[in-house]
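Collaborator request log, item 7. Partner lab (contact: R.S.) asked for a structural prediction of TnsA endonuclease N-terminal domain-containing protein to inform their binding assays.
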Amino acid sequence: MPRSKRYGNNYWGMMGPKVSYRDVILYSDLEYDHWVTVETDAKVKTYCEQPLEITYTLNGKRNRTIFDMCLYENGSELFVEVKYEKELHPSNRNYDRVMRQLEAQKEWCRLNGKLHEVRTEKSIRSGRYSIENRIKILASVINHRHPMFIEEVSKSLDCTKRTMKEICYELSDTCSSYEVFLSCHWLYYKGIITADIDSMIWNYEMEVWKLEQMSII
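Returned to partner:
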């Protein structure tokens, strides 16, 4: 993916299409994978990473916590904290601190009328091929702001499931297979088509179909 930078195991610098292609900083591999799912979720209109810092008290000491991300979708704000499953287990040495941190975040959201959610690798990496496919989709969106044949590809699709191979064959006189894949990635990103990206790699056998009759604009 272009302009991506990775320093060690815990720092990613990426470009975010949903935030006007500005640089997005992420502080763990799990936060990176979560960002990939957010960027490729058509329901999310935009987001802000590290949006807010609040304070809380633990063992008589004042502590700070920063939400990992705030998502804006369907007119609501969802504050998200990303954690590894092991951090939520009582045997973890930081369990008490993590629980108090999450309690403080949830209470702040309750008092301010916001939604709160804790996301772990179980939900973020739920499908075998989900992250790999989403990275491909996101790379297409970042590298190509508006595919040349996206309208032609969109018009060839409806609510019937069809393989990429069938679509490429039908449009072979109009555009290349590369352009078909690129356009379908964009249409998925926009929420116009869908596919089972969790269970198989996006290749010629992948089936895609329209969710409803929508404009690509």
